[in-house]
């Protein structure tokens, strides 16, 4: 069986563009990804970030799902501590009612924002501690109604929408294993605990109604182009973004530069490169070889690929090259 490839998109707002343009570019990417044979297209919840347009994640998912017909569309993820389980059940139940059989609900425990925004969202500081209970409540709301049940998610009830646990630590792996849910590890920006998390998830997995065997989705970054040199230049956009995290100067996605060494200090380079350790950059053969070796090591059931590329045409081409490298099934 060939590897399944999917896309994780943050609807990046590039310098000189608007959030509306970013969301329309995300939708266009999803349309192409469907034709190229990608399995799913996920959008992520982030707040108070001028470079990310997918804060209203359920709305953005609906926008993408309306333009596609087959590819699965969902969240990678919804930060459940930011919301009540009932509201998420209703939102994603609505999406499932409108686009049946194509909606994924990936759930994360982090707030996906800073402390100032956390307070502005009116959420209690201990909300993250209730994550396991909130997942169970959400699962129940999306399941079949029980005798005497008084709280109902409409739409949502009875949909048994597939849930995915997202994580960048061992906690998510343990929870996904205990609940018998698919597990997606955020190694595209936090790769340190990837191997340990996958080992815990697989060794402790308990079968559930949703899933009989463990299913691991591994995040990575891919920037592909016609030549290695061109790909390396395109990759300087995410390299600048990760450098700016440490500088506390998050902004819109910057255009590529000729020499990244002139942009970061040695310490910033070490930090950004560590976060981007699961990145595969180059022409088709180099990306194929690197990702194939990575798959052999981590035994991923699926890769979900982020590609923060400044130029929308180059971004489309990168994902097309990746799909072609792994022989995904294309359609007219």
Provide a descriptive summary of the structure in words.
The chain is of the alpha/beta class and 332 residues long. The protein has 2 domains: 1-161, TIM Barrel; 221-332, no CATH class. Helices cover 42% and strands 15% of the residues. The chain is built from 11 helices and 9 strands. It has helices at residues 19-36, 57-67, 85-98, 115-120, 131-142, 170-179, 194-204, 228-247, 266-275, 284-298, 312-325; strands at residues 4-9, 40-43, 72-79, 103-108, 163-167, 183-185, 216-224, 279-282, 302-306. An 8-stranded parallel beta barrel has the order 1-2-3-4-5-6-7-9, surrounded by 9 helices. Helix 1 runs parallel beside helix 11 (312-325) and helix 6 (170-179) packs parallel to helix 7 (194-204). The longest helix is centred in the C-terminal third of the chain and has 20 residues, at 228-247. The radius of gyration is 19 Å and the shape is globular.
Indicate the radius of gyration in whole angstroms.
Answer: 19 Å
Number of domains: 2
Which topology of the largest domain does CATH recognise?
TIM Barrel
**Envelope shape:** globular
Q: Strand-residue fraction? A: 15-25%
> What average pLDDT do the residues reach?
95
The count of helical stretches stands at: 11
What class do helices, strands and sheet pairing give?
alpha/beta
Low-confidence stretches: none
How many strands, what sense, and barrel or not for the largest sheet? 8 strands, parallel, barrel
- Name the helicity range: 40-55%
In which order are the strands of the major sheet placed?
1-2-3-4-5-6-7-9
- Number of DSSP strand runs: 9
Order of helices and strands: EHEHEHEHHEHEHEHHEHEH
Query: What is the CATH superfamily of the largest domain?
Result: Luciferase-like domain
Task: State the name of the first-level CATH class of the largest domain.
Answer: Alpha Beta
Annotated CATH architecture of the largest domain? Alpha-Beta Barrel
N-to-C CA distance: 23 Å
